[in-house]
Amino acid sequence: MMLLTFVVLLTAAVPSALASGTTGTSDSKKLVLGTSADFAPYEFHKVINGKDEIVGFDIAIAKEIAADLGVELVIEDMGFDGLLPALQSGRVDIVISGMTPTEDRKKSIDFSDTYYKSKQVIMVRNEDKDKYPTMAALENEKIGAQKGSIQETIGQKIPGVKLTSLDKISDIVLQLQTKRINAAIVEDTVAAGYLDDMIGLAHAVPDEEQVAAAIGIRKGNTELLNAVNGTLERLKSENKIDQMVTEASQLMADREVASPNIFEVFRQYKSFYATGVGYTLLLSALGVIFGVIIGLIICLFRMHDTAILRWIGTAYVEVIRGTPMLVQLMIIYYGLSLTFGITFSALQAGILTLSINSGAYLAEIFRAGIQGVDRGQLEAARSLGMGRAAAMRFIILPQAFKAVLPAIGNEFVTIIKESSIISVIGMVDIMYQASVVKNITYQGMNPFLIAAAIYFVLTFILSKLLGRLERKLSASDRR
Ligand code: ARG
Predict the structure, then answer these.
(1) What's the 97 CA to ligand 1 centre distance in angstroms?
(2) What's the count of helices (H) and strands (E) in the chain, helices before strands?
(3) Which of 43, 100, 106 for a ligand 1 pocket mutation test, highest count of atoms within 8 Å of Cβ?
(4) Atom of ligand 1 lying closest to residue 38 CA
(5) pLDDT tens, 333-365?
(6) For residue 57, how far is its CA from the centre of ligand 1 (angstroms)?
(7) Which among 138, 213, 258, 367 could disulfide-bond with 441, CB atoms 3.0 to 4.6 Å apart, if both were Cys?
(8) Residue 96 CA to ligand 1 centre (angstroms)
(9) Residue 21 — very low, low, confident or very high, per pLDDT cuts 50/70/90?
(10) How far is the CA of 327 from the centre of ligand 1 (A)?
(11) 24 lines ligand 1 (CB under 6 A)
């Protein structure tokens, strides 16, 4: 606990400039919007003037709300099923994501008046157009739906289905294309964007029942709720919402077909990757720095004379090494926030997880290094009249450091690669951006090959630099 507090304090000291960006939390001059931008024409990514932008009629509505409130709109794109926890924990102020105000959701958040209605449809591959004349025909079929959505609930009720729930609609569309599922449940407005375009999807069973979309607001935030309803009222009376839907549908329709050439894809989306590289480097650099600090402390604990400290050190290493980093990340990002009200931004949670994790591995590396130095060295130093500390500093540690440098280098390379896990909480790193590009282009190979190439270049440069340092340090050995 003490260590955790320590790291928390350290990361809190990271200048807030670093912590902002895509990870802003609520403050008075900003309205932080949570959305899952995979839902054209509601909200989706679009390259406008070479830059990635989130557009759609939900976004247009959000802009009107922000304008009416006289605040700046900040958009946070995340998985649909992360929206409720994000709103509850105060990470976002408002959720506009084509969300249906269901009874279940009303238990945890409040909803505005509804602003749009749609129906459910089943999407299939073109060749299966006539295969499913009714909903009942989907029995025992492999189907897909968005995780946390009402479509998932609908799917779960069909007898015998094998349901695949994924974060993003485009992931489900890719599953359909690659024949991992045979049908997907989506909303008609959204399906319209996919039908008859290059993917070759058709829509089969329509469902007559209409569902509505409303805006989610944290419970008890009546002031914002009233403001939002006010804006919706105004937009409806000016007939603006229909107009926004039409505009968004047009934006959705004129999407460019991505080139199959990987260099072309890179050229077109390089700004996405550039942002990703920035965050990956920031994340890994801070992860390494705090990781080394934690590693040193834990190493000292593990080698301490006091049994209790040794025990704490060992427990730390065993627990952290013995549990998956993804699980640790979920606990830090969602767990602490929902249970204890300690809310970290995605960047903070990412740095914390990486440092805690690499701290455990580095502690072991440091210990191995120190214990690897021959006992005789210490004895010789002591007999020459050096104190314990001096012997450590001038005799033991330099040798230990040299010996474990390759292992430390390995750990740094690992951190760069593992930082890709942080993308699941919406940290805009290389991996995250690769998925965004995948979602825009519907290409499964190029976006990831580009990401792989970038990671490789980063780790390769790092290992060359470390190799150089190693050679420099071992120069004295060869004399
Ligand atoms: N209306 C459905 C629901 O509330 C699906 C909404 C999905 N929205 C999104 N942005 N992906 O569950």
Answers:
(1) 6
(2) 20, 11
(3) 100
(4) 11
(5) 989 988 898 888 889 999 999 999 999 999 999
(6) 14
(7) 258
(8) 9
(9) very low
(10) 26
(11) no
Q: Which CATH number fits domain 120-208: 3.30.470.20, 3.40.190.10, 3.30.750.24, 3.30.70.1150?
A: 3.40.190.10
Q: Please tell me the distance between residue 428's alpha carbon and the centre of ligand 1 in angstroms.
A: 22
264-478: CATH topology is MetI-like fold (1.10.3720)
Report how far ligand 1's centroid is from the alpha carbon of 147 (Å): 9
> Sheet of 201-218: strands edge to edge?
72-77, 30-35, 94-95, 201-218, 109-125, 183-187, 142-146, 162-166
pLDDT (tens digit, 9 = 90+) per residue, 142-190?
Answer: 999 999 999 999 889 889 999 999 988 888 888 888 899 999 988 888 8
4 membership: H or E segment, kind and range: helix 2-12
Cβ(165) – ligand 1 distance below 6 Å: no
pLDDT at 17 > cutoff 90 = no
CATH fold of 18-115+212-255: D-Maltodextrin-Binding Protein; domain 2 (3.40.190)
Same topology between domain 18-115+212-255 and domain 120-208: yes
Pocket lining: 150 vs ligand 1, CB cutoff 6 Å = yes
Tens digits of per-residue pLDDT, 454-476?
999 999 999 999 999 888 888 77
DSSP characters for 29-89?
Answer: TEEEEEE-SEETTTEEEEEETTEEEEESHHHHHHHHHHHHHT-EEEEEE--GGGHHHHHHT
Domain limits of the chain? 18-115+212-255, 120-208, 264-478
CA-proximal residue: ligand 1, atom 12 (nearest): 149
Residues with Cβ within 8 Å of residue 260, at least 6 apart in sequence = 443, 446
Q: What is the pLDDT of residues 379-430, one digit of tens each?
A: 999 999 999 889 988 999 889 988 999 999 999 999 999 999 999 888 899 9
346/398 Cα distance (integer angstroms): 37
| d(CA 194, ligand 1 centre) in Å | 16
The owner of tokens 């994000």 is: 86
